[in-house]
Structure formats: structure tokens, C-alpha cells
Specification:
InterPro entries: MBL_Glyoxalase_II, Metallo-B-lactamas, RibonucZ/Hydroxyglut_hydro
Keywords: Hydrolase, Metal-binding, Zinc
Pfam families: Lactamase_B (PF00753)
Number of domains: 1
Mean pLDDT: 97
Radius of gyration: 16 Å
CATH architecture: 4-Layer Sandwich
Cofactor: Zn(2+)
Helix content: 10-25%
GO molecular function, one term: hydrolase activity
CATH class: Alpha Beta
Length: 209
């Protein structure tokens, strides 16, 4: 499998580009900014973008949604609970002194247990509300990796003091959905370095009272 992380935008978002080598089908996850770099990486991989996916609707994770849709023709996927964030992203960004283009509405809504395919590879959607009500993670069992957006970080968890956030709900999501995965599953978060489920199970201070 092709897998690349690009750190984009002033808030340092991890944008992920995945591709199946055999079918050349690909996916872009959380294209927050730096659209030219994202598109250049897609071209370098030689993949056809089948999905554009937002793990959640915060403005720093979706700034290239519109341009990627226009350039690739791929559908946009996000959870329906975060629709309001997506279509009003410019207002949220303005509060931080930043400029972001509002996202088009998703072509398809993510749901818990939904399966997306890149060639023979299956990506399972895990709905993990708490950081936002529409927060989702993407689990690739055969690749032993999970993309966690702003739900789970290395030695930390997503903030819950923003609209739609709920700390107890976030911890429940992590415990029931993510901590159920095998210890050797690599955690690729929306910001910062990678980790593993086993590492977070044992040492994450938010999960070990």
C-alpha cells in the first residue's frame, strides 16, 4: 500500500494520502491546506483519487476540499453531524486570524461500521464522537493502522472545549472503539507523531486514571 503523511497549514495538520498499488485507487484524508503539495503527491503516486475524507469538520482539516473535488472529481465524505462546521469553515477560521474556503457539502455521509474500498483493501469507519459530534477514525485492519483525526494523539486526546465537544463522550469513544484494536495497530493522529494502540493503552495519561 502507498501511504504518505504531509503536514499542512499553520496548525500542522497531518494530511494522509493512501493508495492501492494494484488498482491505483487512492484516498486523501484531511486535506487541510497546501493544496498544490497534496495534488503533486497524488500525481507522484500515480493514483486516481476515489475518496476525499474528513475525519471531522474543523476548518484546519478541510481547506482543500473544494479544490480537490474540482481537480479529481472524487466525492467528499464526512459525518453528517459535522456538516455545519464544513459549510461555515471560513467563519471559524476568521476567529483565529486565518482564511479558509468553505467546504462543499459531502457527497456521502460517513457512518459507523461503513466500509470503503481501495482495490482489495478495506477501510472501516469508526464513529468516535467527543472532539466533535461527527468525529471519525479510519481503520485498516490488514495494514495494522488507524487514522484517528483529533480523537486520539500520542500521549494525549482531542480537546473538548470547542463547540460540540464532550470529554466523557470522547473517552468512551476511545475506550470502546480504539482500545478494542490490537496493540500493534499504528495510530496516525491528526497532529503530531504516530504511536500504537498498545502504547496509548499503557501510558496515555487520559486513559489511565
Amino acid at each position: 500500500m502507498l501511504f504518505e503523511t504531509i503536514v499542512v497549514g499553520p496548525l500542522g495538520v497531518n494530511c494522509f494520502i493512501l493508495g492501492d498499488k494494484q488498482s491505483k485507487e487512492g484516498m486523501v484524508v484531511d486535506p487541510g491546506a497546501d493544496c498544490d503539495i497534496v495534488l503533486a503527491t497524488v500525481a507522484q503516486f500515480g493514483i486516481n483519487v476515489k475518496y476525499i475524507v474528513n475525519t471531522h469538520g474543523h476548518f484546519d482539516h478541510m481547506g482543500c476540499n473544494r479544490r480537490l473535488k474540482e481537480k479529481t472529481g472524487a466525492p467528499l465524505l464526512a459525518h453528517k453531524e459535522d456538516l455545519n462546521f464544513l459549510v461555515h469553515a471560513s467563519r471559524s477560521a476568521m476567529k483565529y486570524g486565518l482564511t479558509v474556503e468553505d467546504s462543499p457539502e459531502p457527497d456521502l455521509f460517513l457512518t459507523d461500521g461503513m466500509q470503503l474500498q481501495l482495490g482489495a483493501r478495506v477501510i472501516e469507519v469508526l464513529h468516535t464522537p467527543g472532539h466533535t459530534q461527527g468525529g471519525c477514525c479510519l481503520y485498516l485492519a490488514n495494514e495494522k493502522l488507524v487514522i484517528t483525526g483529533d480523537t486520539l494523539f500520542a500521549d494525549s486526546v482531542g480537546r473538548t472545549d470547542l463547540p460540540g465537544g464532550n470529554h466523557d463522550q470522547l473517552i468512551t469513544s476511545i475506550r470502546t472503539k480504539l482500545m478494542a484494536l490490537p496493540d500493534d495497530t499504528i495510530v496516525w493522529p491528526g497532529h503530531g507523531p504516530s504511536s500504537t494502540i498498545g502504547q496509548e493503552r499503557r501510558f496515555n495519561p487520559y486513559l489511565n486514571d
